[in-house]
Write a structure and sequence with these properties.
Layout (H helix, E strand, L loop, with lengths): L5 H5 L9 H25 L5 H20 L12 H24 L2 H8 L2 H13 L5 H18 L11 H20 L5 H19 L9 H25 L4 H4 L5 H14 L5 H26 L11
Length: 311
Amino acid sequence: MTTTTPADLARATLRHDDHPFRGIALLIGATLCLATSDSLAKYLSATLPSIEIAWIRFVVFVLLLAPVAFGGDRAPLRSHRPVLQVFRALALVVSSLLFITALRYLPIAEASATSFVAPLFVTALSIVVLGEVVGAHRWAATLVGLCGVLIVVRPGTAAFDPASILPIASAFAWAITLVMTRMISGADRIVTTMAYSAVVGLVALSALVPFVWVTPSWRDLLLGVGVGVASSVGHWLVVLAFRHADASVLAPFSYVQLVWVTVIGFVVFAELPDLWTFVGAAFIIGSGLYTAHRERRRRAKPVPAEPNPTA
């Protein structure tokens, strides 16, 4: 799963300087990298199993992260919440596997549009796991997003493909990852969370990949490395974007990724989404943007001062 939704961006808390156009440019570059990673994974899925593609991706992730995470004095895997870190990393692996598998069977634009429903699941999980109170406005946005998913997937019709469940399940696993990230926030350093994602993901996939192993050609290996590099660079650019602009400025531009995958899907795979996919995507985008808007308003709302007992 390599999408970055507006609701995710709205929760970012990185300190930044005030260069919004630079931040927007970086985020658009990030969406292109993430779309490229997904497209390469789809292309590679014709010759390699999903587990092996994900394994190559995590190998590249570890190799790129190692100089940063393991080059300092502090142990990157020293965590105050190691069990939660492990479960978060496993949820990330499941999300990646489900999405790569979806790309094998579905048009890339349809899979990507459906995967943007993660904020709906985050809203529901925040109530159960984090004890948050969700108001009527955010629930309404969630229902609109759900309608968008139903329009794209169209269950009960001849256009329904059972594989459409895969990106939805991937989005749910990604939402679990996001909620656990919020639970970890403040307890561990970012580099610790990244290190757990890389190491646990690689160990888990290394245990699975022997059962499905297909010896890759040099072409397959290069494409797999491309998946890992494009994905890692994309997420790195997202972090850099937040150093230059507010989440409120960047949030709408995360959906540029849908434009990239639509163009790539048409040029490379001769896939053109039908009208209903565009309509459903519009519902999902509107829901995500409104959810991000409500999240920003909620976080910007001033906390009432405690009464002074001596006044």
